[in-house]
Write a structure and sequence with these properties.
single chain, alpha+beta, Phosphatidylinositol 3-kinase Catalytic Subunit, Chain A, Domain 5, five-stranded antiparallel β-sheet, four-stranded antiparallel β-sheet, 16 strands, 36% helix, globular
Length: 416
């Protein structure tokens, strides 16, 4: 018997134009008291191409209970920027109608994301064969960037034009990637891009530094999405190609946060991620080698936004594989701790765990050294790359001692 509920969302996937029901989520309670139950549909359980939505959710007919919403649904829900837009939009509508603001919870956030802009492949509907929620799909063209940028500024300023900006940005769609960074989904030549705008409340040029980080990742041999920076008036905008779309095809996505069954903002360790991912990905040898390189890169970049939600996997015909890298950044605060531990080590001592971590990743000394040597070689020209990205010389000067310190610590921990 299905559990009693007030709200239900059916979960579907499209395969070669055919709609396949995966299961349904029952929502119990509201707000902070929300919990959910997920049940696979018989159609999914009997399919010969079906796969579990998470390692801890095998393909059996049982109830999967979660405080909050299941990880696979959380990965499809909006990030902090999107949640803020949805909340403000509902609040303004309530105010316009002279109504008391109702409780807004994970159901609203999940159902409030534009169907085409939503991260990953899962689609949601209130009935099994009914229309998908938020199916307006009004993704703007690249030419709309000036208007979208202006809207993001209005929202950040919370001025009289902010509600119009909220509606415009919501219609443009948001995703689960990017955190609190102002952004919108845009389309150019049939390809979806995440447009990341500068935060006008900050002085650090985070857009250009993210571009630099992606360039360095590519030089290190890390799988990187297509990206470019374009100037919109006096402001740089970073365009990052969505790796969960191939033309009209939606690609399943899972974050490391969901893979590890962690709560949002929970601290994690690369060792835990490696132990689970080695049994999860289709090509453990190659994937673990790249993940180790990403680990070292995040250390050298001093990426303090390196948490489990900012690592992910996509599903291919062969199985799950690391997604292209995303949300890379640098921090000018040398003493700030990064979010992911390295074999139990954090802070300035984090590099002491790298040798042990390489063993957990299953890497030989030769493979480990190859990763480090390639990264060290790439960073010989880091200043040139920063200048190519048009990073400010004053900010380059701030990052110089941080990069040098982290590079020295890595080399000391793993001489090659």
């Amino acid at each position: 018997m299905a559990p009693s509920q007030d709200r239900v969302l059916f979960v579907s996937l499209e395969e070669n134009g055919e709609r396949i029901t995966i299961g349904k989520i029952f929502f119990h309670g509201y707000g902070d008291a929300l919990s959910t139950t997920f049940i696979y549909d018989e159609e999914w359980l009997s399919g010969n191409k079906s796969f579990p939505l998470a390692p801890h959710m095998p393909l059996v007919q049982q109830h999967y209970n979660t405080v909050g919403i299941p990880g696979f649904a959380s990965d499809a829900a909006p990030d902090r920027w999107g949640r803020m837009l949805i909340y403000k939009g509902i609040a303004q509508e309530s105010s316009d109608m002279n109504q008391t603001l109702r409780i807004i919870d994970e159901y609203d956030y999940l159902a409030g994301v534009d169907d085409w802009a939503r991260m990953g492949a899962w689609r949601f509907s209130e009935t099994k064969d009914g229309p998908f929620v938020a199916q307006q799909s009004n993704i703007p063209k690249l030419i709309a960037l000036p208007e979208l940028l202006s809207a993001s500024h209005a929202v950040l300023h919370e001025n009289q034009e902010s509600y119009a900006g909220i509606k415009l940005l919501l219609s443009a769609g948001t995703s689960s990637l990017g955190g609190a960074h102002p952004k919108a989904t845009v389309e150019d030549g049939g390809v979806l891009y995440l447009a990341k705008f500068p935060n006008i409340n900050e002085t650090w040029d985070d857009v250009r530094w993210e571009s630099f980080c992606l360039s360095m990742a590519r030089k290190c041999g890390i799988t990187t999405p297509d990206f470019r920076v374009i100037n919109v008036g006096d402001f740089p905008v970073l365009l990052v190609r969505r790796f969960d779309r191939e033309a009209e095809k939606r690609i399943p996505y899972m974050s490391a946060l969901s893979l590890l069954q962690l709560a949002d903002n929970a601290r994690a360790d690369y060792a835990d991620l490696a132990e689970v991912a080695r049994t999860f990905v289709a090509n453990p040898r190659g994937e673990m080698k790249e993940l180790f390189t990403r680990t070292v890169l995040n250390i050298v970049l001093h990426n303090i936004d390196d948490h489990a939600r900012n690592h992910g996997f996509i599903r291919t015909d062969e199985g799950w594989t690391l997604s292209p890298v995303f949300d890379l950044t640098v921090s000018p605060f040398a003493e700030a701790e990064r979010r992911m531990a390295v074999f139990g080590r954090t802070g300035r001592n984090e590099t002491e765990g790298l040798s042990d971590l390489a063993e957990i990743f299953g890497l030989s000394n030769a493979e480990r050294n190859e990763c480090v040597e390639k990264l060290m070689s790439a960073f010989v020209t880091w200043r040139i790359e920063a200048q190519k990205a048009a990073c400010k010389e004053s900010e380059i000067a701030v990052m110089k001692p941080i990069f040098e310190d982290r590079l020295s610590a890595v080399k000391k921990a793993m001489p090659y």
